[in-house]
Specification:
Shape: globular
Number of strands: 26
Strand order of the largest sheet: 5-2-1-9-21-20
Oligomer: single chain
Structural class: alpha/beta
Radius of gyration: 23 Å
Bound molecules: flavin-adenine dinucleotide
Distance between the termini: 39 Å
Number of helices: 13
Helix content: 25-40%
Strand content: 15-25%
Largest sheet: 6 strands, mixed
Length: 470
């Protein structure tokens, strides 16, 4: 707008890996960047499970965006949630904390809003089975997990005690596996000598997935080794099962033969699927962009929305030749979009289409055990774990976080100690809530339900199956 600025205005939505790398790539560009995030921090999602299970604090996995961007003098950061877009006027509408609305005009827009947990059309499960995408989710899970052991200790009968000592995890991708392994390690190592009435090591951890193996994306060999290690840890693998309902006291699953089984579990955690955030729907409606089944925006080879070269979509919320939802994809796509804008405003030649360099993926199973798959390189066991450690230290954003995480891991891994066990009891469901219905149902095998009367398969292609996890 003449009189206010002469530099092109770039708005970046989201300060995750993709948004942060986009903003960093424009550091020396002759543009004015505004980065918006509904939270004030950049979150290292791959370590959320360690925050949830008491190893790391929230400050160790989340760095203030303001601090990360302080040397990027052309980047302004605002905490606000973007809600809508007018693609014709080139304006996004956002809401500041407290509810006031702001509008931001842009010449270039980078959408890096990530994805959220999907309950496959059953959002009501979320109240009983939290997902794991944000710090708030990790702290909720921490409260539920540590709270369950406390409720088991003070339980007045064996049935209640058993229920609080049963943890059901839905989704056999890396996050479900990591949580399952951590809860068993917690029970058998950290908490072992701390209770007087219960034996924490009696805790059952049930891992449900629609596939035949957890971590199927790693291929049968690595997935098989991971499954073996999980079983050694005491995780009960409930494969080929689809969750058909979740409530305060547990869940019902349908097995391959269609039989419905109820499992009493005081804690149900959900890591089974992802969906694009509401803003992606607003963007698709405003631009006519095509979306995939999860609502992710299908982009051109240069990561822009078809017909809108001024709008790039990067990271988890983009669908670019079905690339997986991985941190490395988000970093590379974000950096690409930032560079593209830098070149455009400098009048340089249009760069090549986005090409993802696959650096592989990893999953942590337990202390001393992880699996890594990077092209032809397949690692498991201790070597996998050491590589996991190295990769995570290298990628933890910010020197302070990296340094304290290494120290904390040293204590946690050498002495089975978890220092981050503070939790509040607010929001923990009491036994009264659980059985407000009609008294506790025993774990029963229900008669096979006719297909159309079944309590709604949670997903058209198979419930809590091995959904692409981000
Ligand atoms: C539990 C878990 C474990 C994972 N483990 C691994 C792993 O081991 N290896 C790996 O490679 N990947 C892993 N991933 C995936 C990886 O974290 C993601 O691929 C990556 O974070 C995607 O980056 P992003 O920037 O696209 O999205 P995100 O990191 O999700 O960032 C999106 C940002 O946008 C903000 N936002 C969203 N909507 C709005 C809005 N409307 N207005 C303003 N701001 C908004 C959010 O607050 C957030 O900061 C894991 C993910 C999870 C959840």
């Amino acid at each position: 707008v003449p009189g206010t600025t002469v530099k092109p205005r770039v708005v970046v939505i989201g300060g995750g890996f993709a948004g942060l790398f986009a903003a960093r790539a424009m550091r020396r560009a002759d543009v004015e960047v505004t980065l918006l995030d509904r939270a004030g921090h950049h979150l290292f999602q791959p370590l959320l499970y360690q925050c949830a299970t008491g190893i790391l604090s929230e400050g160790q996995i989340a760095a203030p965006l303001r601090e990360l961007l302080k040397k990027h003098h052309n980047v302004e950061f605002l905490v606000a949630e973007v809600e809508d877009i007018d693609a014709r006027r080139q304006v996004v509408g956002a809401v500041r904390p407290g509810g006031a609305r702001i509008e931001l005009p842009y010449d270039h827009l980078v959408v890096a809003a990530g994805v959220r947990q999907s309950y496959f059309g059953h959002d009501e499960y979320a109240q009983w089975a939290p997902g794991m995408k944000t710090i708030a989710d990790a702290l909720t899970i921490r409260r539920k997990v540590f709270g369950a052991f406390e409720l088991a200790e003070s339980a007045t009968d064996d049935e209640e005690r058993r229920r609080w000592l049963t943890f059901a995890l839905v989704g056999g991708g890396p996050t479900g596996v990591e949580l399952a392994g951590q809860i068993r390690e917690l029970a058998t190592k950290t908490l072992r000598a701390e209770y007087r009435k219960i034996r924490p090591e009696d805790a059952r951890v049930l891992l449900f997935d629609g596939g035949t193996q957890p971590l199927a994306a790693f291929g049968p060999n690595l997935a098989g080794r991971a499954a073996k290690r999980l079983e050694e840890l005491g995780v009960e693998l409930m494969m080929e099962s689809r969750v058909t309902s979740v409530d305060a006291g547990g869940l019902v699953v349908s097995s391959g033969d269609g039989a419905l089984t109820r499992f009493e579990a005081g804690t149900v955690l959900w890591t089974a699927g992802v969906a694009a955030p509401p803003f992606a729907h607003a963007l698709a409606a405003a631009t006519g962009a095509e979306t995939d089944r999860a609502g992710r925006i299908k982009v051109e080879p240069d990561l822009t929305v078809p017909g809108h070269p001024e709008i790039a979509v990067v990271g988890d919320v983009m669908n670019c030749t079905d690339l997986p939802g991985l941190a490395e994809v988000a970093m590379q796509s974000g950096a690409y979009a930032g560079r593209r804008i830098r070149h455009l405003v400098a009048g340089k030649e249009h760069q090549k289409p986005f090409h993802y360099i696959d650096l592989g993926s990893a999953a942590y199973i337990s202390r001393g055990r992880a699996i890594i798959s990077a092209g032809p390189i397949k690692l498991s066991g201790r070597l996998g774990w050491l590589s996991w450690l190295f990769i995570h230290i290298a990628f933890l954003t910010g020197y302070r976080n990296r340094f304290t995480a290494v120290l904390t891991w040293f204590v946690a891994f050498s002495r089975d100690m978890r220092r981050e066990r503070a939790f509040t009891t607010q929001g923990i469901h009491s036994d009264r809530d659980v059985y407000a219905r009609s008294g506790p149902p025993a774990p029963v095998v229900l008669p096979r339900a006719p297909a159309e009367a079944s309590p709604a398969g949670v997903h058209p292609t198979g419930g809590a199956g091995p959904q692409p996890e981000t």
